[in-house]
From TrEMBL:
Name used for this protein in its record: Group II intron reverse transcriptase/maturase
Domain Reverse transcriptase: from-to ranges: 79-332
TM helices/strands, residue ranges: none
GO MF annotation: an example: RNA-directed DNA polymerase activity
PANTHER family registered for this protein in UniProt: NUCLEAR INTRON MATURASE 1, MITOCHONDRIAL-RELATED (PTHR34047), PROTEIN YKFC (PTHR34047:SF8)
Organism listed in the record: Priestia megaterium (Bacillus megaterium)
NCBIfam families: group_II_RT_mat
Amino acid sequence: MQTRLRYADYYNLTSTFDGLYQRSKIGENFTRLYDLIISRENILLAYRNIKRNSGAKTSGTDGKTISYLENLKDEQIVGLVRDKLISYKPDKVRRKMIPKSNEEFRPLGIPTITDRLIQQCFKQILEPITEARFYNHSYGFRPMRSTHHALARVQYLINKGKLHYVVDIDIKGFFDNINHTRLMKQLWNIGIRDRKVLAIIGKRLKAEIQGEDTPVKGTPQGGILSPLLSNVALNDLDHWVAKQWEKFEPDFNYHNISNRNAALKKTNLKEGYIVRYADDFKILCRDYQTAVKWFHAVRLYLKDRLKLEISERKSKITNLRKRKTDFLGFTIKAEKKGKNGRRVAQTGISEKKKKQIKHQAKTIIKAIQKDPKTQNALKWNGFALGVHNYFRKATLVNLDFNRIHYDISRTMYNRLRHKAYYGKPITATYIFRKFYRSNYKTFKVAKTWLYPLTDVQTRNNLCFKQDITPYTSQGRREIYKRLSKNVAREINKLINSHIPDRSIEYLDNRISRYSMKIGKCEITGIFLPAEDIHCHHYRPRHLGGGDEFDNLRIIHKDIHRLIHAKNKQTIDNLRTSIQIDGKVITKINQYRKMCNLENLQ
């Protein structure tokens, strides 16, 4: 997210996005968005954003990937987008079936790289408008929000609100059944009233799928614009539920929120609070009778207003005092705590996720047995750190991972005992010592200690702070403060990244250096996500420098290119794109001096 904010600054679009957000916040409608979408700055920003996406190297029906765009000049990319939008006809979408955990398949639609670039152009302009109007407790596919925030909201409603009944609604094939006509009306109602923009989105929705007919409903998963459109489709549901109780304004006066709630409880209104992550949502209620009313009301609303059907088999009402409910890979139950019998949310790992973790763990163990090399060891460490980071927000995470470790321990020992050393990691790397304790026995594969799956402690799960948004100056300040805490997530990406022909010393020290510097560039001081990191040898290898910890520096990839650049035009282009000041130039010159290169002026 910080990289996205910095890119918006590069192209002078921050104030534009802020303006769209503020105008939408006060209910203004937008009739002239097309010129913003095809502006040179917005198109180049879109290219820079999609270039970083993991799917950029995936081809569409035309066989082209991001490398096709990389070979074009800036003006050619701008011209490509503008020319195609003059008489827009989307290319065919490539269909790919992704296996799900229940042996079913999820259809994925992959647009061509040009159509993805166009969708990103639209998303950048539409997102600030829609963000201003989305419901506070919708958490899926929105900037800075996560599954943990949705879980924290449910925990809060159970702990503080004492709401122990939950309505689970499962929408049948949501992404494939979104009603196009209804969606276009919702875009109009949310403030997007540029008819040319709406016409292009309408054509995008009806893009032909390779090997299938032209769709009459749905928005394919895999498109850049699809997550935003899915949130628009369910935004009406969010606000409709909220207006039934949470946002309902009674005719009589009240002095504070407690008086308001007391007054509302004397009415026949249905008390309920919705928490949604994409198409997965729950409504928390106080009693069974209210939950039944909400169940049928939401079912009818989805059917009559949004033209969506629910899965009767998967939709249900759960008494959290007696049974668990699953949400985003976690289990939730209201358990008694303390002498007064107060009930609090107890969370753990769902059975389905436990099976997936054990299956994935055994797959990696078998790979290590067949090929006990560094890359497979790092693959295990990336897997372990990833599942720990996600599930450590559960209150029972330690017990659940102890059981998972026990279930796979025999497989792990039998397969690795002749391939690796088994013991306590006395000389573990910095990153190992930072996240794991050394009193657990584990295997050492190719000089790399495997992270112990059983060693994980729960962490407090905090609710989302609603003023955090990339579209206000205050929100951006909050983002910059919080992003430095996400080092573990980026380290997980570094562990999983593959750099050929690098020593294990280099790979370990790179991660350790990044962790020690709290993820910040050692020249600019800016937090770096994994995809923007280059690891520089302070004394170059061709001048005798090695891979030892003290000789490595974590820096932004563009800064790294500038350190080694010799061509004047290349230097000028890099300096223009990254907008560096005199202090940064002084530091870069120190690095260039070590490389026997001339100073930058």
